[in-house]
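BUG: 3D viewer hangs when loading the predicted structure for this chain

Environment: internal workstation, default settings.
Expected: structure renders.
Actual: progress bar stalls at 90%.

Input used:
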Amino acid sequence: MAIPKIKATYSLDVETTRELAELARRWSTTKSGALRRVINEAAASARPTRLQAFRALQQSLALSEEKANIWIREIRAERDAGRPRTDG
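Structure tokens produced before the viewer hung:
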């Protein structure tokens, strides 16, 4: 199955064009391929990691340590209540 592509026109300065050609040569690909790779890598590095996203979520909740501990105890109690007893 062919990957759909869109032709686009961009204006680049001479030095950027030379750098793009050099990257394409070094990576054994076309200039379009090199440009796609650079854009994809830049976009990936701009996305937050899972840990960063988790920490941002924690901060957005403004959860105090005391509230977090209460929540943890409640969750553990719910889990324990759902477990079958293994008495003897």
